[in-house]
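Before anything else, study the sequence and fold tokens given here and see whether the fold suits the sequence. Record follows:
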Amino acid sequence: MAIPPISNAGSDYFNTNQCRTFGMGFGSSSLTCLSSVDVGGYGVGQPCSEVTVYCFADHGGAFVTIYDKNNAGDAHGWILGDNDQFTFRGITNVNEVSAICSDVACHIEYRAQFFSNNPR
């Protein structure tokens, strides 16, 4: 019986599940790409297969619209109000998701992660 690896060192098993949590503020003037700065040396964005967006803050009736493929012209944005959350799957990087606020300023938190990614 094979002994399961306890680390990536010396093993052909590699855990790609690099989960990261972020927060960002943005306004209503333009669509804002999630993680639009270099995080962890990956360049713009964070590799992942899904991102969960949380709208915790009290936006005073404002709502946040989230778009995949950074397409604000698309009529299929996902609208989040206060204390809403939604998970977007089927992406390869958090920078494929963007947000815009219906008012002057909003704040979201989001978690970029791989959902069951095992290379074997």
Observations:
- The mean pLDDT is 76.
